[in-house]
Amino acid sequence: MSDIDSVERNDVGNISPQFNATDADVILRASDGMLFRVYRRDLEAFSEGFAGPAAAHDACPTNPADDIVQLTESSAVLEILLQFMRRQRHPSLKDLDGKTMAGVAEAVEKYQVFSALEACKTQMQEFVRSNPVDVLVYALRHDYEDLANLSVEYTLGLPLQRVYPRLPESYRLQWVSESDHY
After folding, report:
1. Contact status, residue 138 vs residue 105, Cβ threshold 8 Å
2. Judging by beta carbons within 10 Å of its beta carbon (0-12, 13-18, 19+), is residue 179 exposed, middle or buried?
3. Where are the beta strands (DSSP E) in 30-71?
4. Is the pTM above the cut of 0.70?
């Protein structure tokens, strides 16, 4: 019995209703177990992370019966991310909570979904006051200097143990120095 057969029999309630193409050639499994039946051509067309022969072969097997691709992202994140990898109107990001937005923004960067980069960066700005550490880490990790400069101000009064461990090593000393002057 192939994996695709077992998916159809055993995981019917665990398949995304929005991404359940019966003729899908790729099955993605979210970190929480939700399955997404999608088309390789969409992943390759809308994402550098899945594009090209080497990347596509490593991330997505040629035959969905060979493997189910395990991803580290949650189903909430993949539901949004995969909507950016279809020929359709892109989803709104304005109603996402901070945790989901941060997850989507990181996944967009990881898989290089260029159509969503700017929308995610813009929406992350909305969380500068409520989630300044998440925004700062995202901005530093992806070289968004303007967003890093904006968010760092909101982290300077926070406890060292809340911010320091999350920062990329190359920025820790600078943050501590700026925090001391605050």
Report:
1. yes
2. middle
3. 35-38, 69-70
4. yes
